[in-house]
Amino acid sequence: MKIQALKAPLRTIRVAAVQYQANQVNKAGNLQELEKLIMQAAQAGAKLVVLPEMCTTGLLIGDRKNASNLAETIPGPTANSFSELAERFNIYIIFGLITQEGDIPHFHNSQVLLSSTGQILACYNKRHLFGPDWHWADPGTNGFKAVPTNLGVIGLGICYDINFNDIWAFLLGSRVDIFAFSTNWVEECSPLPFWEMAARQSGIILIAANNWGGNQSIGFSGESGVMCPIRGMLASCGPTGDSVVIADVYLAAVH
User: What is the pTM of this model?
Assistant: First the structure.
């Protein structure tokens, strides 16, 4: 007797990676522009929108004094603004920002996941700091995050984290469906082949939201995109310019 394996039905989810160059001195202006890009993604039908690392300030903030002027608590002004959009458009939003906690205080390069009802589901603090981070940030000690949602299990990670085995061991062990990757990837070469290889080798959908541009000391590569394990690169944008990358991904209806 021939036995045929049962396959879980697939469902389609539209996702978005937002590419944005933050103005280093205009946090309020960044927030307004990001809100426009989020609305653009929502109007295109996206149910999950991923924003870059430190998207309201940019990466190059200098020192702890500057960090103290830019950092927020969670919840706070940025989380509240994005929560309203998440609830209004019934979308999940993931974004990066500078956070602070404690009386000392401790500053973190953080990533927040909001539900489609505007609730804060998780706040991850970057564990593996990159060069400019060390001038102001404390390494995260609150652990990697994998959050069950109506869309599937979403894993969080920030930029330099992707180069280390511990986050991949966690994502695979947590049976993550989607890796929401907020980054300020530097302008050495195109990141797309590396991100595509990561998606193929891990079996996890990867949504990379990047910065672009930079200054005389450092540049960022842009090329935000959505990668999947089977088909590789689904959609991406160029190395420059603010953009919303839209792609349809397929997940099992039952995890």
Answer: 0.94
Q: Where are the alpha helices (DSSP H) in 132-224?
A: 165-173, 192-202
> Does residue 1 fall inside a structural domain?
no
Q: Nearest 5°: CA angle at 91, between 160 and 9? A: 90
Sign of CA dihedral 173, 94, 180, 16: positive
Position 35 in a domain: yes
| Each residue's pLDDT tens digit, 103-137 | 888 999 999 999 999 999 999 999 999 999 999 99
* Tens-place pLDDT, residues 72-84: 999 999 999 999 9
Specify whether the CB–CB gap between 218 and 132 falls below 8 A: yes
The answer to the question of residue 161 being in a domain is: yes
| Contact between residue 92 and residue 149 where contact means Cβ atoms under 8 Å apart | yes
Query: In total, how many domains does the chain have?
Result: 1
Using alpha carbons, select from 113, 142, 110 the residue that is nearest to residue 129: 110
- Closest to 70 measured CA to CA, from 137, 1, 15: 137
The CATH number of whichever domain residue 224 belongs to comes to 3.60.110.10
Bond before 77 cis per omega within 30 degrees: no
Residues of the domain holding 18: 11-252
